[in-house]
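User: hey, got a sec? need NB-ARC domain-containing protein folded
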Amino acid sequence: MFSYFVMAVVGENPDINAIQESIASYLGIQLKDQAKQVRVDELRQGFEAKLKGGESKFLVILDDVWKPVDLEDIGLSCLLNQGIDFKVLITSRDQAVCTEMGVKADLVLNVGLLTEAEAQSLFLQLWGPSDDVDPDLYNIAEEIVRKCCGLPIAIKTMVCTLRSKNKDTWKNALSCLQHHDINTVAPAVFKTSYDNLQDEVTGATFLLCGLFPEDFNIPTEDLLRYGWGLKLFKGINTIREARYKLNTCIERLIHTNLLIGCDAVRCVKMHDLVRAFVLDMFSKVEHASIVNLGSSKLGWPETDIDVGASCKRISLTCKGMIEFPSDLKFPNVSILKLMRGDKSL
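Assistant: Yep! Here you go:
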């Protein structure tokens, strides 16, 4: 049906340049200019180069759209007048966003939660129990799946967390999910998975990933440098040994579905729901942090005295920031991460 698929993750705080770069990468071109109209023209030329006599059809997927995005700003609306056959697929948690972007009501497809039968089937498929598994685990599994409220990410995370664990761990997981509904079950699932990591370095690595922007390709070498500077690798004396340990931690986090592998070399990703859980944790655990990545506010974020005194980690996007305030007081801060766009300074 379509000759080419093009995809860009929009996210909670859209970065037009980043969206354009993502589209350009699918087209196999590089955007060499920063001027808006020039980049739009370069994208149009990229689409035209793939036309093959006008027979090619394009599907452009704009994923995870939180607020309306102007297709003209991205450089897509001009394609309609250039004889380029393309469709735009928008994924969003808010139907109103699709409507505001011009999608007709009868073209909006609501993707519902899994039915209980589908959820139970998914859990068993991911679990893959052996023939000699304790029969009681099946009953516990059914209850756990019901508590996951049909959320695929919650179901998968619980499977990854409990696979190969003993019955008591399963019972404890079920107990942790009691009294939660569709609005609170995901954080409860992630908390259960986090508590079962059973390794301080792995837990600390997981929290470090929350310092990066949404849908970011997190370089493992950055995690290594931060972990080394924070002295997370106890009893390890060389960078090579620390890298081995970090890779083991990352493998564990991927297996528990708290991190996701990605196509970028030596990088990982964090699901936006998992990242939201980490950011919420930052205000509740000793790793208290200030994270304003993607914020539309310019300059240094406002903080009260109590936050400044307890803050240990700061991660900021430097928008409209000419200099640091002279009266900063963060006596316990151990890491200051500054970013410009999607790159660390």
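Quick note: The CA atoms of residues 317 and 341 lie 7 Å apart. Let me know if you need anything else on NB-ARC domain-containing protein.
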